[in-house]
Design goal:
Helix content of chain A: over 70%
Number of domains of chain A: 2
Radius of gyration of chain B: 28 Å
Largest sheet of chain B: 2 strands, antiparallel
Order of helices and strands of chain A: HHHHHHHHH
Strand order of the largest sheet of chain B: 1-2
Number of strands of chain A: 0
Number of helices of chain A: 9
Number of strands of chain B: 2
Oligomer: heterodimer
Strand content of chain B: under 5%
Radius of gyration of chain A: 17 Å
Strand content of chain A: under 5%
Number of domains of chain B: 1
CATH superfamily of the largest domain in chain A: RNA polymerase sigma factor, region 2, helix turn helix motif
CATH architecture of the largest domain in chain A: Orthogonal Bundle
Amino acid sequence: MTEKERIYCELLVLRCRRGQRAAWEELVQTWERPLFYYIHRLIDNEDDARQVLQQSWVSILQGLGKLREPRKLPAWLYRIARTTALTHLRRRYGERALCQNGEATTAVDVTDGQLDFDNAEQIHYGLGRLSLIHREVLTLFFLQDLSIEEIAGVLEVPVGTVKSRLHHAKRMLRAILEREESSHA
Amino acid sequence: MHKPDKTLRERLLEMETLNATQQEVHRPHVQAILDTRLSGAKRVGFATLALVGLLTAICLGKPAFDPPRNWDEAVAALLYRLFAIFGFFACVAWVILTGWAAFSGVLRRTHRPWIVATTLAMGFIYLALLAFVFVLPVVHEESMALLGTQLTLMAFFLLNTIGLCVVLGTVYRGQFRSEEKLLEIEYRLADLAEKIDRGSTR
């Protein structure tokens, strides 16, 4: 995220705090799609994802006045979306489901083949086949709104863990996409 | 095939196939988050407040527009009439705001400061009315000047409170506005720097 975009975020937060309806609508319009994309990667059901997004907006509106660093708005928004999504998942499936989803990564055959990470269609398809923790970190990475440090903040893990997860997630994504390509060939 | 001028982020976001019907259903909900939806009990509460306000407005309407002519002291009569006029309009505003909230079941974010302001004014009006009800019969026999002094004191405190709210509101808005202006300048500078940077790299 550029400095210009960070200033824009701060300006938007300030206007929202002043109670400007147009600013709130702009905030929703700007962040609705990326937040929904992220939440939908965490929650498969579209209707549930929409409801989680709606709950996230409520939390965002309630917490916007207390946001200490408005320039870090994107990280804060993703953190709220994540917390809301995980609460929803815990309520629905319990902790065990989350852990099982995380452990499923070991089953994927990892290769070191080179693959172009510029094909959105392939990435979108591949993300759906990754485990939750890898899907999550890679989604945040590909959405390009946050730095590695900010992703670490959102996921509440050290920067090193994010880097490691990203490395593994990319390798797994490559493996999935290569396997898919070879099956079509 | 993808358009090369779009970033990976944009192309990824476009991959998300949104169910148009669901989006239509959820969008008004998100917009409505700004407004507080009132429960049945709260709506009844607001309706009661509107009714109380209406009754008070009726009570104050008569002395406001048809002042008593048998008062000996002109100043006290004038103060009483001014109070009644102010009270009447404050009550009307209060009735409109609370009545609308009760009727629509929604407390609009933009209405909240006005509701607070009219509530404050109504508080003073009821305080003054209490003084009229309990103090007037006592002082009426002795001196109307004492009543005038009491009303003046109340008006003084009311005006002080209104003044304080206005000053605080102005300071608050001014602070926001200057902060907004600074950020706008900062944004333009960052935009300019970005353009210069882009120009130099070509």
